[in-house]
Amino acid sequence: MSARLDVFATPSGSRLVKQFSSVGRLVAESALPAATRELVSLRVSQINGCAVCLDMHTKEATAAGESAVRLHLVAGWREATVFTEAERAALELAEQGTRIADGAGGVPDEVWERAAKHHDEEQLLALVTLIAFMNTANRLNVILQQPAGDYRPGQFT
């Protein structure tokens, strides 16, 4: 399988990737815990069916020492006992923020309040930015049919 379009082959595509990646770097440099960032990235990518992002974030999380059990249970986080309350709140916000069209009124106040209970304002901003960033990345990759499986940890850092 090959991508429908080589974004890096066009001048405007290269600029777009550079600018877009800068947002990802800001989130990576934030106070949001690295484990939370990877878990949220995985959950958003699962919902959106983005194989290339699943490949990337599973490998990055594994390289950072994340356990296979936690990675395998991200899709079933509600019933899993391996996540902290802060991670659960972040995963819930990620789902609600990704599935905005599924519910009237956007993200419910109680979901936001649970996230705010465990994350300060800087972390909340990073979390919301990450959710929006991953949704955009997922859509770009799915539309362009980016192939998955060849990612190497640290490839884009």
TrEMBL record:
InterPro entries: AhpD-like (IPR029032), AhpD_core (IPR004675), CMD-like (IPR003779)
Name used for this protein in its record: Carboxymuconolactone decarboxylase family protein
Record domain Carboxymuconolactone decarboxylase-like: where: 26-95
Coiled coil: none
Pfam families: CMD
Lineage: Bacteria, Bacillati, Actinomycetota, Actinomycetes, Kitasatosporales
Domain of life, per lineage: Bacteria
